[in-house]
Design a protein that fits this description.
This protein is mostly beta strands and 222 residues long. It has helices at 2-6, 155-158, and strands at 30-40, 49-58, 73-83, 91-100, 106-115, 121-129, 135-142, 148-151, 171-173, 179-184, 196-205, 208-218. The strands form three sheets. Strands 1-2-3-4 form a four-stranded antiparallel beta sheet. It is globular.
Length: 222
């Protein structure tokens, strides 16, 4: 555990990662890495720990011209989840990598986890984009046999007609309660300020999050 807490663990790029930090996805080899966070996830009973690494990649200075100076240095972050197979030891079970900086797509990648049925664990990963694009949320289930299963968000297709198009900046689902809320936009609402909030209650059935109940409430005027 001490090594993972003090030094970055080199992991292969995630198979689904379009912005890999490997030698093919960065402008040069990985030069430097620092641990910027190492902490248990909120639910201590899971025994999971999250680490954040900051990587720096620089292009070899074969061309000393100004063209190869600051623009060739790129930074990225990596989020790693560890479980604890034995006390004092950690093992990486999931990770994702994303470029950072002014031109980067992603602003943050935030994992959460909660116990699920049958001794499995529900993993939520919130992806937020730079600018005003909002956030998206994905779910995986860690099964007792240590395999992963993707969770489909069927509830979005179960909303009344037209509702999905009024959720412009995503929703935030609590993995423990499976309750969520989202800004609910009307035709005349500015991008910053939806006039209503959509509340939903969900259930995990099989490999899908399904809709149990929904309601809409007006937001208080400021």
């Amino acid at each position: 555990m001490a090594r993972a807490q003090d030094k970055c663990i080199v992991l292969p790029p995630a198979p689904e990662d379009d912005d890999s930090l490997g030698s093919g996805g960065m402008s040069g080899p990985l030069r430097r890495c620092e641990v910027i966070e190492f902490r248990p996830l909120a639910d201590a009973a899971l025994g999971w720990t999250v680490a954040r690494y900051r990587w720096t990649s620089a292009k070899p200075a074969a061309d000393p011209s100004p063209r190869s100076a600051p623009s060739d240095v790129r930074t990225a972050e990596e989020v790693v989840l560890f479980d604890t197979p034995t006390p004092g030891q950690v093992r990486p079970i999931w990770h994702d990598r994303f470029s950072t900086g002014e031109d980067a797509v992603w602003r943050s990648v935030t994992p959460e986890a909660a116990p699920a049925r049958g001794g499995s664990t529900l993993l939520s990963v919130m992806y937020c984009v730079n600018g005003t694009g909002g956030c998206g949320q994905e779910f995986l289930r860690r099964n007792r046999n240590r395999s992963w299963t993707g969770i489909r968000q069927a509830w979005l297709d179960q909303l009344p007609s037209g509702f999905r198009g009024r959720i412009r900046h995503g929703s935030r689902i609590d993995p423990h309660s499976l309750r969520a809320e989202a800004g609910f936009y009307g035709d005349g609402d500015p991008n910053c300020c939806p006039s209503e909030t959509l509340f939903v209650e969900l259930a995990l059935r099989g490999n899908s999050l399904v809709l149990v109940h929904h309601s809409v409430a007006a937001r208080p005027e400021k």
